[in-house]
Specification:
Elements lengths: L8 H19 L2 H17 L2 H6 L3 H20 L16 H15 L3 H11 L4 H8 L3 H20 L4 H16 L3 H6 L1 E10 L11 E2 L1 H11 L6 E8 L2 E8 L2 E11 L2 E8 L6 H6 L12
Length: 293
């Protein structure tokens, strides 16, 4: 018997409950969450005994492993939940069930990285560990978490279907291509906010822009039609967004958060470091499908 695996029953049950909750909120249903937890414990017992004994906080190792498995499942599924089969072993109240459904529906609209960062942060995981799981730096994880929180606040009050989102994004694309400021402003919420991330590597607006007309003007200035400049609709963070190119180089990636048939938030990534993966794809078979900048 390995006495290193002897743990009080209360700790065992609490540990498993914690892992199930993390996986359930990341994947969206309990059946998939249980499979993740099973895989997590399988990996634990596949470790050599000496390695297991050297892990001072097993719960942290287990949480990190479960989070990584969930993130890989989300990436493979493209976005959102892995499955939607119902599970009747727990019977929450109608109010709890409805609240949970609303939050999970909103979480489905996040990219895998945003969803993982938000859920793991909400469960109190250390920023360094979250960054390790998501494969980003701590500042980038903080940005993902903040973006997810703001988007969930929007979605809670004004849910939008993928079809509505796509229609609005393509309308924005047409307005930008035509340099039609009035039309573009009409597609934005009156209190829309735009964020421009240049990372200190290019000259970009350093603070958020508020209001439909100022945001429209800022976007049109940025995307002004010039020779060799093009704008296309592509998958960005699991939802349709806009990608601006100068020649063959991706110069900006724009995420649009849509609520009630209007754009509520705009995220413009201009930082060359964050666009490196987009431009790498150019040398490996073209732009393909989007991914987080």
């Amino acid at each position: 018997m390995d006495r290193g695996d002897a743990v009080p029953i209360a700790e065992l049950l609490e540990e498993r409950r914690f892992l199930l909750e993390v996986a359930n909120w990341m994947l969206g249903n309990l059946a998939d969450a249980e499979r993740v937890v099973g895989e997590t414990y399988l990996r634990w017992y596949e470790l050599p005994e000496a390695v297991r004994r050297g892990i001072t906080v097993p719960r942290s190792w287990l949480a990190k492993t479960a989070g990584a498995i969930c993130l890989s499942w989300l990436a493979l599924s493209g976005r959102g939940t892995v499955g939607h089969e119902e599970d009747h072993r727990t019977r929450p109240t109608d109010a709890e069930e409805e609240a949970g459904r609303i939050v999970l529906d909103a979480l489905e609209s996040l990219s895998p990285a945003e969803r993982a960062a938000f859920v793991l942060d909400a469960f109190g995981m250390a920023p360094g560990m979250v960054a390790d799981i998501v494969g980003r730096t701590e500042p980038e994880v903080a940005e993902l978490t903040d973006r997810a929180r703001q988007w969930l606040r929007v979605r809670r009050s004004q849910p939008t279907t993928p079809q509505q989102h796509d229609a609005v994004v393509h309308a924005v694309l047409r307005a930008c291509a035509a340099q039609d400021g009035e039309r573009l402003a009409s597609l934005l919420c009156s209190d829309v906010i735009a964020f421009f991330d240049g990372g200190g590597k290019v000259r970009a607006l350093t603070g958020p822009v508020h209001g439909s007309r100022p945001v429209a003007d800022s976007l049109l200035t940025l995307l002004a039609g010039r020779p060799r400049t093009g704008l296309t609709a592509q998958s960005v963070n699991g939802r349709t967004g806009l990608v601006a190119r100068y020649g063959c180089q991706v110069a900006a990636v724009i995420s649009l958060d849509v609520a009630d048939d209007r754009v509520a938030q705009v995220w413009v990534t201009l930082n060359p470091d964050k666009l490196r993966s987009w431009n790498r794809r150019r040398t490996h078979g073209g732009p393909g499908s989007g991914r987080s900048p």
